[in-house]
Amino acid sequence: MTIDRLTLRKFLLQEKEKHGLDQDMMLLLEDIATSCRIIAHQIRNGPFLDILGAAETENVQGETQKQLDVIANDIFLSHCSNCARVAALVSEEIDEVIWLKDRPRKGDYLVYFDPLDGSSNLNVNLSVGSIFSVVELEEDLSELSNEAVLIRGSEQICAGYSLYGPSTSLVFSTGQGVNGFTHKIGSGEFLLTFPDMKLPAETGEFAINASRFRSWNAPVRRYVEECIDGEDGVRGKTFNMRWTASMVAEIHRILMRGGVFLYPRDAANAHMGGKLRLLYEANPMGFIIEQAGGRASTGWERILDVQPTGHHQRISVIMGCRDEVELIERYHDEAGD
Ligand code: AHM
Ligand code: MG
Questions:
Q1: Ligand 1 atom 6: the closest Cα is on which residue?
Q2: How far is the CA of 92 from the centre of ligand 2 (A)?
Q3: How confident is the model at residue 1 (pLDDT cuts 50, 70, 90)?
Q4: Per-residue pLDDT band at 337 (split at 50, 70, 90)
Q5: pTM for the whole thing?
Q6: Ligand 1 lining (C-beta closer than 6 Å)
Q7: What is the position in ligand 1's atom list of the atom closest to the CA of 114?
Q8: CATH 3.30.540.10 at 8-194, yes or no
Q9: Are strands 295-297 and 317-320 parallel, antiparallel or unpaired?
Q10: Contact at 8 Å (CB) between 316 and 265?
């Protein structure tokens, strides 16, 4: 049985009608959707094209790039440059901010993206994703500097991700809730399959890389130990654990069935500020999680309130169902840590 579903274009036109979604944002989102379709195609054909392995380059974080990191980055760069409103692009894979305009104006867009997140999953044929975020300039810029893109996540006007799993999902929010689309193979279209996604308040599932146990701070240890204690412990219920090493897959699972995701600052990554990047990983995912009714925190404060200090800055990330995140924040507070 085929269900008649809204196409991405029709959905965007409805958002324009209902909520005044900007025409340029519609065009940008359609270009991002096209980028994701092309990247999905490249990933599926990766073994034939021999592009799943390492490129002979390192990115600004000193990490060895996969060939597909470079390919996905090029695809995002070229498609996001189509929209005349985009003044600058910030990519995980590029050291400097890319300015597309000499004199950015109030209302122009800054687009931040991680073109291929979780790329260590590529050569084992597990899920990876792309993440994006859009901020609107509040004033004309007189100078093009890296500092000009250091804008709080609370200023995002759109954020989302694409998950390259058994099917290709495109999930985004323009500040009016979260909607999920699936690419219908052969049709070239993304169709609305998960309208108005909402997180449950409570959960019995958490996601953390437990191999880092020794490095965790006391509040994170306390939280995880209490989950593992299950019915016999203070939580009085059994918890399940998942770790896919792909933040996009993790957040998508949490949106679909609840949970909490932690990649906290710990003793081993504290010198970098954490593992995940603020502007193109934590902020967009935090925006989505909040729009779905959840909470996104560093453990000490709301992620979207953090004033960025560098465009590749890393940060502590704890996000998902509200009650769990608030509990972990309380543990941080009580520990005075
Ligand atoms: P990447 O941007 O270099 O791909 O790294 C981010 C990824 C996240 O998707 C994931 O949550 C995390 O790194 C996994 O880290 P680990 O290998 O420590 O489990
Ligand atoms: Mg990443």
A1: 118
A2: 7
A3: low
A4: low
A5: 0.95
A6: 63, 92, 114, 117-119, 209, 245-247, 263
A7: 2
A8: yes
A9: antiparallel
A10: yes
**The CATH classification of domain 205-335, taken from the options 3.40.190.80, 3.40.50.2000, 3.90.950.10, 3.30.565.10:** 3.40.190.80
pLDDT digits (tens, 9 = 90+) for 128-186: 999 999 999 999 998 999 999 999 999 999 999 999 999 999 999 999 999 999 999 98
Cα pseudo-dihedral 268, 281, 311, 67, rounded to 10: 90
User: Which bound ligand lies closest to the C-alpha atom of 250?
Assistant: 1
Indicate the top mutation candidate among 43, 112, 117 to test ligand 1's pocket, ranked by most ligand atoms within 8 A of CB: 117
In sequence order, which residues have a C-beta less than 8 Å from that of residue 202 and are 6 or more positions away?
258, 321, 323, 324
Domain ranges of the chain: 8-194, 205-335
Distance in Å, CA 263 to ligand 1 centroid = 9
From atom 2 of ligand 1, which residue's Cα is the shortest distance away? 117
The C-alpha atoms of residue 274 and residue 180 are separated, in whole angstroms, by 29
276, 315, 318: residue to mutate for ligand 1 pocket, most atoms within 8 A of CB: 276
pLDDT tens digits for 54-105?
Answer: 776 777 767 777 788 899 999 999 999 999 999 999 999 999 999 999 999 9
Which residue in the block uniquely carries the two structure tokens 């929209």?
83
Cα 225 from chain centroid (whole Å) = 27
**CB within 8 Å of 39: residues ≥ 6 apart:** 68, 71, 72, 75, 115, 116, 130, 162, 164
Beta-carbon contacts of residue 96 (< 8 Å; ≥ 6 apart): 146
275 C-alpha to ligand 2 centroid (Å): 9
